[in-house]
Write a structure and sequence with these properties.
By secondary structure, the chain is of the alpha+beta class. It contains 18 helices and 35 strands. The chain has a nine-stranded antiparallel beta sheet with strand order 1-9-10-11-12-19-16-15-14. Strands 2, 3, 4, 5, 6, 13, 17 and 18 form an eight-stranded antiparallel beta sheet that branches. Helix 6 (about 305-315) packs parallel to helix 8, helix 10 (about 435-450) packs antiparallel against helix 11 (about 460-480) and helix 13 (about 520-530) crosses helix 15 (about 570-585).
Length: about 650
């Protein structure tokens, strides 16, 4: 039995099936994303969504959907489904759905009278091409399939409006057509493995609604262009393959292309394998560079998310080579910024003050997984450069206090930490001055850096200087952040110490090197467990704190105001788990293992097989925001690996 499987009773109930989405990427920035039954509920949904370098490298929806119709004895049975203005669904193809399963690839089974038809989708790795295989499992009479392509040709966050400026030209190609609606876009080629008849029947389909955008209070209605339809006869037991891409393909090659692609898939046969598949979907390879995209269906290449998620997305699934490639790309961008002050054009936010700290933490995870000797060989120069860069006060917004050794930053006017929600250009949470996780990461970086330089006689003096700096800041850290209630202030700015109970203190107690002793860590851990822990990670604010807003709902403004005021973040579970195991040792393994059940439950919710960006802070802890988020998948994977190693030891 498939780990990810849904039956007819759920699928034909749109209230239950439409919230469930599926995502596939090509590890080059393109993706397909829709609901299990194929009804698009977001403007970012589509069968072929690709970045277009000539248009700013943003994702663009070319092929929004492909409506299938089964024709027998001249009678059409339409399998597609769209929502139109007024909440009307047409056609109602979901009523023919019998099963959806997703072990190696997504497979949807339809039953129309005596006809049983399966549909399987696969995205070709590192190529902007989707293949859909249709197999006629059962039929008692001659059957023809009709396909209506719904075209958008627009940026994924925009909407299409019916217009007279589109290019209606149809380019005949082998077993299909090519078309390009607007200048500047690539030509979309739609072809079949079998001979297909194209029929011109151009129409705008007006008033298609995206219910998720309606719920989010953003524009949600568009018009899509359908230039005509294909017809392909199909026999019982026969399979035909549809291809949509930005280059022509030889139809006879589609069968081999399809089979080669599915042979490389890891079956989604367990919680771990589902997350492993999800992890690889965040990879982006561009020539000699590799990146991590922050999430889908919207997201970009962000420096902080890259370094925070890199260990979990690579090392936790035994992809050491991918860690090294992505880290090398990130190091080049960060080193360039440290040397010249020029930010990267591809990795956004490389200039933020905590980036060298998170990059150092990522290297530390590599050293723990792959050995210090290899880490020294690859990363000693970078770590030396990064630590000295901070220590010498070269970062424009990171300052070392000469007396205490603590780090401060200016975040009053622009967000500087991962809690970066803003309103009218100003931080909603003005975390400025001395931030608790910045200083915990700094102490950890000094101590790890010293460990990395151990035995290096040429750098022995520098190592001692780093150890002295760490020792200098140890007591000031405790004096500044640890309060009488036993938890850590979130930030201290001048005479103001933020009393809000926030999860950044979990980072401070979860790092390998902490200024806090075991007793102090346990005290902080108790507060985090009592006030922040949920089955979906740690809340961003305690329910006891002023301004708690657990639900990420409403208009864009309301959601921005709530983002870090209560909703839970799964990625924080990685640091919580490390802190818990540091305090309780082997006896804490079963507890952390039980906490993972809350994340396994999400494999059949939201984006199946992945984790959402955030979850409501109150029951039933619904997933919100981006449907698949890199840092969350990464840190849950790292937690699974952490437990496994504890059990092995």
């Amino acid at each position: 039995m498939s780990y990810l499987k849904f039956d007819k009773n759920l699928l034909i109930n749109l209230d239950q099936s439409l919230p469930k989405e599926m995502l596939r990427t090509n590890q080059a920035g393109a993706y397909l994303c829709t609901t299990l039954v194929g009804c698009n509920t977001r403007k970012q949904h589509g069968l072929l969504v690709i970045p277009i370098p000539e248009l700013g490298n943003k994702p663009h929806v070319l092929l929004s959907s492909l409506d299938e119709t089964v024709i027998q004895h001249g009678a059409p049975f339409r399998l597609g489904i769209h929502r139109y203005q007024g909440g009307v669904y047409s056609p109602n193809g979901h009523k023919y759905v019998r099963e959806f399963e997703c072990e190696s690839i997504p497979k949807l089974t339809y039953r129309v009278g005596g006809v049983i038809l399966t549909k399987e989708k696969v995205f070709i790795s590192h190529e902007n091409r989707i293949l859909i295989r249709y197999t006629l499992v059962e039929a008692h009479s001659a059957t023809t399939l009709r396909f209506n392509p719904f075209l958008a040709f627009r940026e994924s966050n925009s909407l299409c409006v019916a217009n007279d400026t589109i290019n209606r030209e149809i380019i005949p190609v082998e077993n299909g057509i090519g078309t390009c609606l607007y200048k500047g876009f690539p030509t979309l080629y739609m072809q079949f493995s079998h001979k297909a008849t194209w029929v011109d029947d151009p129409n705008w389909y007006n008033g298609i609604e995206y219910v998720k955008d309606l719920e989010r209070g953003v524009p949600y209605c568009e018009d899509l262009w359908v230039p005509g339809y294909f017809e392909v006869p199909i026999r019982k037991g026969e399979s035909i393959i549809f291809s949509a891409g930005i280059s022509e393909v030889k139809p006879r090659s589609l069968k081999k292309m399809y089979e080669t692609e599915i042979a490389s898939r890891t079956p989604r046969s367990s919680f771990f394998n589902s997350l492993k598949n999800s992890a690889k979907q965040f990879y982006i390879k561009e020539s000699d560079n590799m990146y991590i995209i922050s999430g889908f269906p919207w997201g970009s290449i962000l420096a902080r998310n890259t370094f925070m998620s890199l260990p979990g997305l690579t090392l936790a699934i035994d992809h050491r080579a991918d860690f090294e490639k992505i880290m090398d790309t990130g190091i080049r961008a960060l080193t360039q910024f440290m040397a010249t002050g020029e930010p990267s054009q591809r990795i956004h936010g490389i200039e933020l003050p905590d980036i060298p700290l998170w990059a150092t933490w990522a290297v530390q995870q590599y050293a723990k997984n792959e050995g210090f000797d290899r880490a020294r060989e690859l990363y000693t120069e970078f770590i030396t450069t990064a630590v000295d860069y901070i220590l010498e006060g070269k970062h424009p917004n990171l300052f070392v206090n000469e007396d205490t050794g603590l780090l401060s930053t200016n975040g009053a006017d622009s967000p500087v930490s991962w809690m970066n929600a803003n309103h009218n250009g100003h931080p909603i949470i003005p975390r400025s001055g001395y931030l608790v996780e910045f200083n915990a990461l700094w102490y950890n970086a000094l101590m790890f850096g010293a460990s990395l330089l151990e035995g290096n006689e040429a750098l022995a003096e520098r190592r001692q200087a780093w150890l002295a700096e760490a020792e200098k800041m140890k007591q000031p850290f405790i004096d500044m952040f640890l309060n009488d209630s036993g938890y850590l202030y979130d930030y201290v700015d001048g005479r103001y110490s933020s009393p809000d109970v926030r999860p950044n203190m979990a980072v401070a107690i979860g790092l390998d090197h902490s200024p806090l002793d075991r007793r102090q860590r346990k005290g902080v851990l108790d507060v985090v467990t009592r006030e922040l822990l949920t089955p979906k990670g740690l809340r961003t604010l305690s329910p006891k704190s002023y301004g708690y807003r657990p639900l990420y709902l409403g208009s864009p403004e309301e959601r921005e105001l709530a983002m870090h005021q209560g909703p839970a973040r799964p990625w924080l579970m990685g640091f919580y788990a490390e802190a818990y195991l540091k305090v309780f040792g082997l006896s804490g393994v079963s507890y952390i293992d039980r906490m993972l059940i809350g994340f396994e439950d999400e494999m059949t919710e939201g984006c199946i097989g992945s984790l959402s960006q955030l979850y409501d802070g109150n029951p039933p802890y619904r997933g919100r925001g981006a449907i698949s988020h890199a840092t969350n998948v990464a840190e849950v994977l790292r937690t699974i690996r952490l437990i496994k190693r504890f059990n092995q030891d």
